[in-house]
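can u do me a favor
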């Protein structure tokens, strides 16, 4: 026994030979036989009890070390874009070692939570051991984390009640996986393995505090949708290191009467406008419009940590109480914000309109601008209506009057172009100083809004046309026309209220606008607007141009909001490169990745839209919670087999009337006519009907509202064409089946 290896010798062997760490391999390495093998077993057990060794299945690893082939779970990319991973099953008491994923060309993309089998290479650094991981095989896509309320149960376990109203399945949090969560606390959990039967199991990964506290509503959305709201030290350091811009080579635009016009609560100012009459003899009655946009490309250079973070976020996400910005505040609210009276770098386009408002020419400049004033939409509208305040009075002659004149011309061209003219009210959440909902007014739609929108659209068109003419790669904003199935459903819906949408022709926005006009001022107006909206496809970003159906434009790109949209920054860089406006334009490697970028930022945009919508729903439910039992007037806004959706007149809030509360009879759902019909009573409830309801329950944590239907009034829709054709075919099919049966009977 005198040659039996010491504990240190055994540990050193395991560290240097991790692939041969089973007891049999260790015994063979040291030439141990018989009773020595029993002693080896005891020594390995002692090393494990001392915390110097870990046993995984039949193999051993030194504490803090990993086997050479290990199942890993991918983590979120860091600010540099690198993907780190953690062991799928880590049983050590200390934090697991750092593992950097080293992808090879052709490896599949890994997302947060994805499990993969990897070969590890240990890298011993002075203070710690780290690993580099090479993909062997992707095992499965990561399950989405769940956000919910923690509820105590027995024996140190708990349950997670989901906050997503689309999910009604609870999770079991077993003992040892609660991370000390308290009853009623908001938590985030990830799935873990468990029995095939029963509730799914999870492990608490974050404790987020009191769900009813101010500002928690938007925090729920941030965690639920995985929207980052904090920047890494490296990104912040790059932003703080940004200095004043270089003026050399820029056009001096400071003499233009440029104005920023934004909502009163605007958090950034990235566009300014000015207009003057066109004095050229070849354009009588024409206008020159300048649209100056913050030159974000001057500060966010390709390949930097700032750029990688902006691409990862895709866009800013706006909530009633906070913003999750695409860029750090040093840039978004300071250096890139077009503040009143402060010189700022800009990328500007000079638009030339004729007397009918048609765009007859455009030219881009990289310049220096100075905003004469930061105005609100309400200020600009009041000035146009003859009620200027002291600020707008001084700007009328030089700035505002020419701006409105140019807009009136542009409005003519817009009317002739016939973009889709939907009229849907938008809710606005007003919070008090405590972060509670004070009011939910409908956002007023002013001509001042339309003025800015129209000039931004013209600037975006100019950007797309310029880049296409220079054969430069860019990201288009694409909105494809509705698919045939959605159009058939729309026809069926509007036929039910006595309107029609022509069939057998190429659909144009003018056809839909005529439909919307026919419904105007009728009881079906809101329903028709909603139905037309639901028939539309979702707009997205693409490196290929498929046109913009809604705006009725052949080519369209986003250029006007680079502070809050990464797509606009891509377009800015493309313009800088195409027009030779500086060394910080689009690089070949960025142009080669446009398809990949387009998919990523389109997904980010959808994520933000869902998060913003869910947050508004939660705020509305919190506002309504104190009014349970009250009666409201509204309109049936949707019909499903499980019930009715109602939109309230007062606040625009949406809620559900479960079908089980409509009476003691079976209701037949007709998805084409958007109706529920009582089998016994013949009662018909249809989309668009006026409704009087009582609020039964408001659940702020999910944003859910449950109503009871007290009364539904309005004309029941008539049977649409498709339904009539279907009903006419039914007897024919029945007759054919009967004839076949008779023939079979005769043959028998």
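np, heres the sequence
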């Amino acid at each position: 026994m005198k040659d039996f290896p010491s504990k240190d010798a055994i540990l050193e062997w395991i560290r240097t030979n991790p692939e041969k760490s089973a007891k049999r391999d260790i015994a063979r390495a040291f030439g141990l036989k018989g009773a020595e093998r029993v002693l080896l077993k005891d020594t390995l057990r002692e090393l494990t009890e001392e915390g110097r060794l870990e046993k995984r299945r039949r193999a051993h690893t030194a504490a803090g070390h990993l086997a050479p082939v290990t199942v890993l779970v991918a983590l979120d990319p860091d600010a540099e874009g690198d993907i780190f991973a953690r062991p799928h099953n880590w049983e050590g008491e200390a934090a697991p070692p750092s593992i950097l994923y080293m992808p090879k060309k052709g490896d599949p993309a890994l997302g947060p939570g994805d499990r993969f089998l990897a070969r590890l290479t240990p890298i011993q650094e002075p203070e710690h051991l780290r690993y580099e991981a090479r993909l062997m095989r992707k095992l499965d896509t990561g399950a989405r984390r769940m956000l919910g309320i923690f509820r105590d149960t027995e024996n140190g376990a708990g349950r997670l009640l989901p906050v997503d109203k689309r999910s009604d399945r609870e999770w079991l949090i077993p003992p040892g996986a609660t991370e000390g969560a308290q009853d009623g606390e908001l938590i985030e959990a990830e799935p873990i393995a468990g029995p095939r039967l029963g509730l799914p199991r999870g492990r608490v990964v974050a404790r987020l505090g009191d769900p009813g506290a101010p500002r928690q509503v938007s925090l729920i959305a941030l965690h639920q949708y995985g929207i980052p709201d904090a920047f890494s030290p490296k990104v912040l350091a790059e932003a703080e290191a940004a200095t004043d811009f270089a003026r050399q080579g820029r056009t001096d635009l400071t003499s233009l009467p440029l104005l920023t016009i934004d909502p009163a609560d605007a958090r950034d100012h990235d566009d300014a406008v000015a207009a003057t009459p066109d004095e050229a003899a070849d354009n009588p009655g024409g206008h020159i419009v300048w649209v100056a946009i913050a030159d974000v490309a001057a500060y966010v250079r390709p390949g930097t940590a700032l750029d990688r973070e902006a691409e990862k976020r895709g866009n800013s996400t706006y909530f009633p109480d906070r913003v999750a910005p695409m860029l750090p505040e040093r840039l978004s609210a300071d250096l890139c914000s077009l503040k009143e009276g402060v010189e700022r770098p800009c990328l500007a386009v000079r638009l030339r309109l004729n007397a009918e408002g048609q765009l007859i020419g455009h030219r881009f400049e990289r310049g220096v601008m100075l905003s004469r004033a930061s105005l609100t939409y309400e200020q600009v509208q009041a000035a146009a209506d003859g009620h200027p305040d002291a600020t707008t009075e001084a700007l009328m002659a030089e700035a505002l009057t020419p701006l409105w004149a140019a807009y009136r011309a542009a409005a003519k061209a817009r009317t002739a172009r016939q973009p889709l003219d939907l009229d849907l009210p938008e809710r606005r959440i007003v919070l008090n100083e405590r972060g509670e909902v004070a009011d939910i007014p409908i956002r007023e739609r002013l001509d001042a809004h339309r003025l800015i929108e129209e000039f931004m659209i013209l600037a975006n068109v100019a950007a797309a046309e310029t880049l296409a003419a220079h054969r430069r790669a860019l990201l288009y904003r694409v909105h494809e026309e509705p698919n045939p199935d959605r159009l058939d459903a729309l026809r069926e819906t509007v036929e039910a209220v006595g309107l029609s949408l022509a069939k057998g022709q190429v659909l144009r926005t003018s056809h839909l606008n005529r439909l919307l006009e026919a419904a105007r001022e009728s009881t079906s107006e809101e329903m028709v607007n909603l139905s037309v909206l639901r028939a539309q496809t979702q707009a997205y970003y693409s490196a290929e141009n498929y046109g913009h159906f809604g705006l009725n434009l052949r080519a369209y790109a986003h250029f006007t909001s680079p502070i809050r949209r990464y797509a606009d920054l891509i377009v800015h860089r493309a313009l800088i490169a195409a027009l030779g406006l500086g060394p910080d334009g689009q690089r070949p490697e960025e142009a080669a990745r446009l398809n990949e970028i387009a998919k990523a930022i389109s997904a980010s945009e959808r994520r933000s839209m869902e998060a913003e919508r869910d947050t508004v729903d939660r705020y509305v439910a919190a506002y309504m919670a104190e009014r349970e039992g009250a009666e409201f007037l509204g309109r049936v806004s949707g019909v499903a087999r499980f019930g009715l959706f109602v939109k309230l007149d007062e606040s625009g809030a949406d809620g559900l009337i479960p079908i089980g509360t409509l009476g003691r009879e079976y209701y037949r759902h007709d998805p084409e006519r958007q109706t529920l019909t009582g089998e016994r009573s013949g009662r018909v409830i249809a989309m668009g009907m006026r409704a009087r309801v009582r609020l039964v329950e408001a659940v702020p944590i999910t944003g859910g509202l449950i109503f009871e239907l007290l009364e539904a009034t309005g004309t029941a829709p008539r049977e649409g064409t498709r339904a009539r054709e279907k009903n006419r075919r039914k007897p024919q099919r029945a007759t054919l089946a009967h004839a076949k049966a008779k023939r079979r009977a005769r043959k028998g």
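The radius of gyration is 32 Å. hope that helps!!
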